[in-house]
Amino acid sequence: MDLVLSHARSIVAHPAKPMKRELLSFFSNPMGEIALEESLEENPSLDEIESIWVECQREKSFPCVTMLDCSFSMAGDKHLLSSVAVAVLLLEVPVQDTSLVVFGSQARSLKALKENQRRENTVLEFLKLKPAGFTNIAKGLEEGLAQLNAGRAAKRKIGILATDGRSTEGEDPLDVARRFDQLIVLHLHGPGSHLEASQKLAEAGGGTCLEVENFGQLPRRLYEALRALARA
Description:
alpha/beta; Rossmann fold; 6-stranded mixed beta sheet; 3-stranded antiparallel beta sheet; 38% helix; 22% strand; elongated
């Protein structure tokens, strides 16, 4: 557990959280920097303190769901490296803004949106999983959408899917992918992987496909995907 979190922290050692600008009244934040342009529009003479605005920077929120393949083919070292990716996710995105879904033949949520579960508990629960079953990508995507819909705070349906692109069970995942506003697909290269299928999933979901040449790259590629989503 400690090694997993330590590795994840090394990847996000200097996180520069995406910020957004907010305007507040002078009374609510008298130590803030005056938003001169907005204040002048409100009162050109600036002779009433009630009309003065100040600006502040707040961390940008972007609720998203990450869906990880936990089928039988993900056993062993791949599952351990996936746990580092899970830790990266939880360190980079505020706990209440992220959901984690795992899928094989079936799909389930390990962490729901708005759930303030300790990072360590989520990583430990993932580590305890035993990868099994076939690869039902459609089920994973459906569970991800269910989490976003249940969260209600998600204005846009944003998801990250880690897969080798080959769905060995279930319905065509493209129809489900189209229900996302933005879906980033982390394509896991390896024997039997299907890059074109991953690219089509990303295209259907209005997102991009990022290639993961070897499994050791997965945590960092997930981090890059999160940064791209946060700045979108």
